[in-house]
Design a protein that fits this description.
Pfam families: Sigma70_r2 (PF04542), Sigma70_r4_2 (PF08281). The protein is mainly alpha-helical. It is built from 10 helices and no strands. Helix 4 crosses helix 5. The termini are far apart.
């Protein structure tokens, strides 16, 4: 796999230019060539920006959709193909970062007052109203899984931080979050 330096300054740029022009002509093989050359590096850049593999992979996918749609606007005289692609990637990742900061209100919303950093997960649960559907569903989770969900979503801990705080392997922390979210979704439905 070529390095970014080679992509930006080497003979591969002609191939990337032609692949983008091929996308503009509707050639799927050209998009595939771009993907083969750039997807691993793009995923790495997106992962550094977003710090979540699922979001990084989604951004790379969306970037390739945008490349396909906007390939006709690419002009090699104005810049390198790799720079054009990574600019689209960066903008797409920034849009995701902005979107992740949005808060969606739900019907059963309980206001939770800001709580100090020292407050533990169970205190966070107590802050929810006794009659809240979310509280009832959280009470159904096993204590460690409930703690993981509360720390992840009310404290903003990453999977890695959860694993460290709870003393479990990273894969276990991820599985707890995934399964607990599925259980909560079913319970709230």
């Amino acid at each position: 796999m070529p390095s970014l330096t080679r992509i930006a300054h080497g003979p591969l740029d002609d191939e990337l230019n032609e692949a983008i022009y091929g996308c503009a002509r509707g050639e799927r093989a050209s998009l595939h060539r771009l993907y083969e050359h750039l997807a691993p590096k793009m995923t790495g850049v997106a992962l550094r920006m977003l710090r979540r593999r699922d979001l990084a992979e989604e951004v790379v996918h969306d970037t390739f959709l945008r490349i396909w749609e906007k390939a006709g606007s690419f002009d090699a005289a104005r810049g390198k193909a790799s720079a054009w692609v990574f600019t689209i990637l960066r903008r797409t990742a920034l849009n995701v970062l902005r979107g992740e900061r949005r808060i969606e209100l739900v019907e059963d919303y309980d206001a939770i007052e800001p709580i100090s950093e020292e407050t533990d997960a169970e205190s966070l649960l107590v802050a929810l109203s006794e009659t809240s559907a979310l509280r009832r569903c959280l009470d159904r989770l096993e204590p460690m899984r409930r703690r993981a969900i509360l720390l992840a979503y009310l404290r903003g801990l990453t999977h890695g931080e959860l694993a460290g705080r709870l003393g479990v392997p990273l894969g276990t922390a991820k599985a707890w979050i995934r399964r607990s979210l599925r259980t909560l979704k079913d319970c709230l439905a």
